[in-house]
Design goal:
Length: about 325
Amino acid sequence: MWFAELNFAVANALANEPWSSPWLSPCDRTMRARHRGAGERGLALVAVLWLVAALSILVSGVVYAVRGEIRNVSWQKELSVSTAIADAGAMLVARELSVSGIRDGLLRTYELKFEDRALRVDAIPLNGLVDLNAAPESLLADLLAVAGGVDRSSAGKLAQRIIDWRDPDNVALPSGAEDDAYVASGSRFRTRGANFESPEDLLQVLGIDFDVYLKISKLVTVEARGSGHVNPASAPLSVLSVLAGGDEELAQGYASARARDGLLADSTRFRADHQGSDVGSRFLIEARIGLSNGSVLVTRRFLDIGATAKGAPWTTMRIERTVEG
């Protein structure tokens, strides 16, 4: 036992105090001291390398953050400039409609350019959209089935629930839902018994989820104040597809004929009970402008174009801005 301890002490002494060991020659002590110095320099080199690596990572992180901030600032600048151009285009079209006094119910498209930035502006009479406050059950069902992707049976049920949500009585339609059904389902919403105030109110209707809402929200309006039927001359292509029962060829054919012949385009192949001929002063002015990343900025203004109590050329009812793609 004592011999092993002695060996350990000697080995430790040789490793840590080579210059003072009585068993080593002066030459050996010098060599061991040199090795020890080389080891210390190696450790110092490793420490320096680790420090350089850490600083490199820190600098890379700072550079990445700065570049990200520059990209964000650049994107915000482009978005602000594009929004201003889109708003200006929408105002120019609104002014044209106000000055010309055009009230024929025809959807019109304008191609504009500002400082090499091209934008498209559609002037859509609101009677070309589906009116949530007046549309009949059959039109709502086709809207949900064709645009919302809901199966026909469920589309009819949801259409009745929309009507029950807006009507003032508390008597449910055969497949509809009044407050007791909302309570039974655990929904925190109840029927309003009054008009929809915005398309987002659809999310309160029992059974309509966010996915369905997103698909149909751009095809509906709450401001039309018409008969509840759609004027084909006013309707964008997405609504024409609803009128055509999902027949894209029929919808596209009519849109092409309308662009060529205007009000003379034949709409008789659409369902007669979906069509109306309402003409009003309320418009959706939709401006679209491309962005550098391939997406499109869309500004949608809902306007009542006509003299107001304060003498303004139009009244702004609602504004929406989104980036598509």
